[in-house]
Amino acid sequence: MLLTLQTTHRPATDLGYLLHKHPGRFQSVDLSHGKAHIFYPEASESRCKVALLLEIDPIALVRNTRNQKAVNFSLGQYVNDRPYVASSFMSVALSKAFNTAMNAKCKDKPALVAQALPFEVELHSLPAPKGGEVLIRKLFEPLGYTVELERQPLDAQFETWGMSKYFRLVLRHTLPLHLLLTHLYVLIPVLDNDKHYYVSKDEIDKLIERGGTWLQEHPEREQITQRYLLHLKSLTRNAMDRMLEQEADAENDGPEEPEEMKARKVSLHQQRLKQAVKALKASGASRVLDLGCGEGKLLRLLLRERQFREICGMDASFKTLQNARKRLYMDEFSPRQNERLKLIHGALTYRDKRLEGYDAAAIIEVIEHLDENRLQAFSRVVFEFARPETVVLTTPNAEYNVRFETLPAGAFRHPDHRFEWTRQEFETWARAIGDKFGYRPEFSPVGEEDPEVGGPSQMAVFTRNDVLNQESEIDPDDN
Ligand code: SAH
User: Is the pTM of this model over 0.70?
Assistant: First the structure.
């Protein structure tokens, strides 16, 4: 299955910047049922064309029970159109291959993101049910596309066999690239659908509310949303999921908290996670642990960084780990992704061999959930037995609590916190750990720093002494 996208904007090779894919390189991404290849058949000043070629593995598809149910003749699970047509797999491929562009980001030429550019998209084989031609037009024309459709014959050599249900579709429009990509991402699976089951009205309302203004204003929005949601369950959903991430986080933070504090916590947590990723990257680690990983917010960020070749999340709560599996769509992982990320159930207060041999560990907002008398056991588990080169650890800064106007004096930020430390208390504890186990901690505030009470949260990055010594042994004049 092939999708091509071209522009005549000048210089046309800006497309490479927008897609974060170099026109001179052939690249591939793994999908749960195959691979997607990205390459440029043409890249000149006046025209640039990128191709997304899907290679679906039909055998892997057969193993997926969902697909077996969908076919209605016995060989149908082996002989079907899935490898050759644009379907929800194309959506997944688009979101994987062009995720950054779909999220309206362009590192090198940010001004291009919002710019309307002339695009032409060609989908070589698009299945459409009865009345498909009308539906295709109803979906794309209200968004401003010029639609060119050509129904394919069943077999070009036997004209009398008649026409097939597959179309070649060419779309032309001048618009920002990220919009074009989200249109395709949502509308391709909407077309490839002929089964119906019940989708609750709540779910529909949610997608309409969040799907961006184009969907809200689309005359066919109900139909699009219903059909899209049928496929939602079978998609890896990267792009859409990321668009929704902020809101989902806000919802999951619990209804009992006042709005103002909730909103601040969400953005603080994002900052904290980003800072942790930065510290882990700087350590040079490639095998990393996320201890007390919760629902996998940090794991999701770690997965995006190629540097981390092996990632392991551990949590004491089995239910939380199940939620993490869901939120990370681990059921849809390719075999390679499955090897890269592991989730394990365990407690940080018991020695655990599975934690040994990693380069670095992140422990984000976890220690304050442990009883203070268990902290010693915890520190041995991490710093004596698991003993990674780097440990990135964060905990709230109790001094900052006075800045949360709605938090009663002396109360903790979360009902499950057993303690919250001042900066001094945290540093004293961390230095004692460093002295005992041979690590050097470095401290930094997390979140916007207040001149009096410091940052809302605090971070220590512990580096093992032998690593520090190795670094200082390297003579800068050696080379
Ligand atoms: N690090 C995550 C979650 C923080 S909430 C994030 O930043 O989003 C604290 C997590 O620590 C919870 O998921 C809780 O289940 C886990 N936890 C608490 N005590 C633990 C223990 N003894 N061992 C492992 N995990 C623990």
Answer: no
Same domain? For 11 and 96 the reply is: yes
The residues, ordered by sequence, that sit 6+ positions from 189 with a Cβ below 8 Å of its Cβ are 87, 88, 90, 91, 227, 228, 231, 235
If you ran DSSP here, which 8-state letter would residue 448 be given?
S
Ligand 1, closest atom to CA 269?
7
Residues 410 and 313 in one domain: yes
CA of 464 to the centre of ligand 1 (A): 24
The rounded Å distance from CA 463 to ligand 1 centre is 22
Number of structural domains (the chain) is 2
Domain that holds residue 66: 2-198
Cβ neighbour number for residue 162 with a 10 Å cutoff: 10
The alpha carbon of 194 and the centre of ligand 1 are apart by a number of angstroms equal to 43
Amino acid 405: pLDDT: 76
Span 389-435, pLDDT tens digits: 999 999 999 999 988 877 878 888 888 899 999 999 999 999 999 99
Q: Among 249, 288, 298, 315, which residue has the most ligand 1 atoms within 8 Å of its CB, making it the best to mutate?
A: 315
Phi, psi of 31 (to 5 degrees): -120, 170
Q: What is the pLDDT of residues 114-125, one digit of tens each?
A: 999 999 999 988
For residue 156, the domain's CATH number is 3.30.1610.20
Do residues 378 and 370 make contact, with C-beta atoms less than 8 angstroms apart?
Answer: yes
Q: Which of 55-69, 125-139, 266-280 has the lowest mean pLDDT?
A: 55-69
Contact between 460 and 443 (Cβ < 8 Å): yes
**Are residues 116 and 28 part of one domain?**
yes
Q: How far apart are CA 290 and CA 454, in angstroms?
A: 26
| 183 plus 89 within the same structural domain | yes
Domain identity same for 421 and 291: yes
| Cβ pair 53, 80 in contact under 8 A | no
Task: Say how many Å lie between the CA of residue 455 and the centre of ligand 1.
Answer: 22
Least trusted range by pLDDT, from 258-267, 352-361, 392-401: 258-267
Ligand 1 mutation target, pool 369, 373, 416, 457, most atoms within 8 A of CB? 369
- Asked if 166 and 298 sit in the same domain, the reply is no
Q: Does residue 300 carry a pLDDT above 90?
A: yes
- Name 186's Cβ contacts closer than 8 Å, sequence gap at least 6: 91, 211, 215, 224, 228, 240
Residues 192 and 93 in one domain: yes
Domain CATH for 312: 3.40.50.150
Which pLDDT score, from 0 to 100, does residue 357 have? 96
Q: Which of 220-234, 332-346, 425-439 has the lowest mean pLDDT?
A: 220-234
The pLDDT assigned to 408 comes to 78
Distance CA 106, CA 353 (A): 43
CB 83, CB 58: distance < 8 Å: yes
